[in-house]
Amino acid sequence: MLAKRIIPCLDVRDGRVVKGTRFVNIRDAGDPVERASFYNREGADEIVFLDITASVEGRRAIVDVVRQTAEVVFIPLTVGGGIDSPSFMQELLQSGADKVSLNTAALKNPSLIREGAEQFGSQCIVTAVDARRIDRSAEADSPGWEVYSHGGRQATGRDLLEWVKEAESMGAGEILLTSMDADGTLGGYDIEMLAAVTGAVEIPVIASGGAGSLEHMYEALTSGNAHAVLAASVLHYGTYSIAEIKDYLSSKGLPVRPVEK
Q: Most exposed: 55, 80, 109, 132, by fewest CB within 10 Å?
């Protein structure tokens, strides 16, 4: 079994790391370069850097901050935010990113995923998906989820499972799945949604949204079949360290990359 990955998420707005609840009530959580450097030293497996208002504001991710972050991080760095062309993917990869995360632009133009995969390899292309549960109780026994764009601000009408399958067919190497209902609540990942997505695709899925305890992470990696867990609040505000998370998961029998003491 491949080692399970622990990935801090740096949501960045106006050059600062921020964290909200269900995509609103945003709070400051520090400097992105300092945060990334800290998590690198603490034993994180990867870093995800998301410029969360880039698509809304019609601009691109902050390349200078990406470059500065890459200089202090020696683990894989994924960058997302306003990426709308292969040329910008190349600029970010040349600035130090190892992967690029596509969301809003890919929903508008799914062929962007294929273009990126063909030019840079599927291993560099992450499709980020923000989804919210739909109340279908009156029409179906099973739940449904709708995909949102523009940092969770716009409903797309797209069915979650159909979209992740399409993204995989276009060449995405990984899915970064965020539950908008659970995000920032510390109440746990949406395991039902996570299991539905991991059952629908063969590529790795990163669980995001809702981590509040060590048990939540274990549940996402086992019951949800996630390949990695993304965490923000519990790391930014010192609830757990990377080492504590990995020690717990290892004690439960899951393979993790050891933290060097």
A: 109
| Collapsed DSSP state (helix, strand, coil) of residue 214 | helix
The average pLDDT across 108-118 equals 97
Which residues span the domain enclosing 14? Answer: 5-251
CATH number at residue 163: 3.20.20.70
Is residue 120 situated within a structural domain? yes
- Annotated active-site residue 84? The verdict is no
Please count the structural domains in the chain. Answer: 1
Q: Give 64's Cβ-side CA count (13 Å radius).
A: 2
Amino acid at 193: M
Q: Active-site residue among 45, 51, 84, 130? A: 130
d(CA 111, CA 98): 21
Q: C-alpha angle 34/16/120, rounded to 5°? A: 80
pLDDT for res 91: 94
11, 51, 84, 183: which is the annotated catalytic residue? 11
Q: Are strands 47-51 and 77-80 parallel, antiparallel or unpaired?
A: parallel
Contact by Cβ (8 Å): 206, 175: yes
257 located within any domain: no
**In the predicted model, what is the mean pLDDT of the chain?**
89
**Angle (nearest 5°) at CA 220 between 22 and 151:** 30
Would 152 be classed as within a structural domain? yes
State how far the Cα of 231 lies from the Cα of 238, in Å rounded to an integer.
12
List pLDDT tens digits, range 130-157.
Answer: 999 987 555 555 679 999 998 888 999 9
Return the closest-CA partner of residue 20 out of 148, 152, 147, 126.
Answer: 152
121 vs 99: CA distance, rounded Å: 10
Asked if 247 is an active-site residue, the reply is: no
- The reported pTM is 0.90
Give the residue from 44, 209, 193 showing the smallest Cα distance to 133.
Answer: 193
